[in-house]
Amino acid sequence: MESTAAVQVCKIGWEKVTNNTFYSDESIECVVKSSGLMQADCMFMDSLWDPARKGAFKKARSHPLVIFAPTNRSRELHWVLYILERDRPGVPFRWYFGDSLGGRSRRDEVDRIIRLYELTTNDLTLERPSDIKMMDIPRQNDLVSCGAYATEAILRYLRNRGWPSPKDMRIQHAGIVAKKWQRSWNT
Fold first, then answer.
1. Ramachandran region, residue 20 (left: φ > 0; alpha: ψ -120 to 50; beta: rest)
2. CA-based nearest residue to 56, from 123, 125, 119, 110
3. Contact 151, 32 (CB under 8 A)
4. Neighbour tally for 86: CB within 10 Å
């Protein structure tokens, strides 16, 4: 049984997805975790968590093999995605970046991911990458689907599938969350 807070956070995320509004950290994390595709060796980073609040979170597992770091470029109200993966603990991560508007990765975002990783794990091996590969993410054709594309890129990574339309992404994401959580909301 999930905590009351987790149920409420997922309800808020689900409402944003189904009401065709902007995705939030809650929306993205809730869809991904509700999908049942997350594995124990995966770590999800909240884009709005303030690394200055060191005591706010307990240390996570120390050596994830995959890190999902959706990042909200708050001045632009735009979601981009970093995925870091490695074959085993102790070896460097391969960095991937995706943007449904075709933008590039930014040094400040990379530095923030590294800082956040060091503060939330016992693993101090994450270093600035010498190369960040671009993910093949389709271009959005509106101003509000960037969160759906970032979310779908994570799900696509986890299940290794192709891209649905933005409308189908939202329907699918809402269904994933509703399937897991709706009973909890009605109690």
1. left
2. 119
3. yes
4. 18
> From residue 80, how far is each of 93, 103, 181 by CA, in Å?
19, 9, 26
Let me know: does 29 contact 172? Beta carbons within 8 Å: no
Helix axes 25-34, 4-18, angle to 10 degrees: 110
pLDDT band at 50 (very low <50, low <70, confident <90, very high): low
For the chain, which residues make up each domain, given as ranges? 4-185
Tokens of 66: 């995959």
The residue with tokens 């509703």 is 178
Quick one: CATH architecture of 4-185? 3-Layer(aba) Sandwich (3.40)
**Model confidence over 14-46: pLDDT tens digits?**
676 677 667 888 788 888 888 888 888 888 887
Which 3 state secondary structure label does DSSP give 95? strand
| Cα–Cα distances in angstroms (integers) from residue 55 to residues 51, 52, 185, in the given order | 9, 9, 30
CA dihedral of residues 57, 93, 106, 34 (deg, nearest 10):
-50
Residues 123-134: tens digit of each pLDDT: 777 888 999 999
